[in-house]
Amino acid sequence: MDKNNKETDIEERPEELFDGFDFYEESVLKGIKKVLEECIKLTRKKRLTLKEKERMHELTLEIVMIKGLERGFWVENLSYRKYSTSLGSMRLSLIKEYECKTSLEFMLVDRIVASYWRSMQCDRTFNLILTNENDGFSFDQLKVNVIKELNKSIEFSNRQLSANIIMLKELKQPKLNIKVNTKSAFIGQNQQFNLDNNEIVKPK
User: What is the reported pTM?
Assistant: First the structure.
């Protein structure tokens, strides 16, 4: 089989590139290890060339992005650099308040901060367009169209914010542990569970 045919086969059957999740995980870990080893090797050098300094900067950024979810890299870069500290502070407050530890919890916190930030930015722009510093009004069709679009964006951001807050709260709810000690108990509407006979009895 020539090279062209091989590439065509891969395009038609991309699953052949990966032999299950174990192979994918191993590949990712090898990539991370390679970046770390190269970075450590450069840090041990007493003097770096200009090219090596540039490479060191690339590797450092890559390592930061690898741990971006845990360290809040993506949230802090949602907007201009001058807002990074504020965005990071919001994220940290939520993580502490809800005692977040898993990747999924970090993702939800990031989405909450992102939705809130977008909503507030749109609100600010909306209000600045709506009135001027002297509380005066002036409208033209372009301004009306912009206000309509901003209003849609605000509503969408608020829905996202509410949905992600609910998801995070539900995720952090402690699991219910119900213990039934009676011989018979009413579990659902009009259903009685008989422990002696191990059956559900529906009342007539």
Answer: 0.69
Do 88 and 128 fall into the same domain?
yes
pLDDT in tens, the chain (204 residues): 444 554 444 455 555 555 566 777 888 899 999 999 999 999 999 899 999 999 999 999 999 999 999 999 999 999 999 999 999 999 999 999 999 999 999 999 999 999 999 999 999 999 988 887 777 777 788 888 999 999 999 999 999 999 999 999 999 987 766 665 655 555 555 555 454 555 545 555
Domain boundary among 20, 49, 66: 66
- The domain total for the chain is 2
Q: Domain for residue 34, yes or no?
A: yes
Q: How far apart are CA 67 and CA 36, in angstroms?
A: 12
Q: How far apart are CA 95 and CA 47, in angstroms?
A: 40
Number of H helices, E strands in the chain: 8, 3
Domain that holds residue 50: 1-66
| Residues 124 and 57 grouped into a single domain | no
Residue 35, burial from CB neighbour count under 10 angstroms (0-12, 13-18, 19+): middle
- Beta-carbon count within 10 A of 87 CB: 21
Residues present in the chain in total = 204
54, 84: one domain: no
Q: Which residues, in sequence order, are bridge partners of residue 201?
A: 192
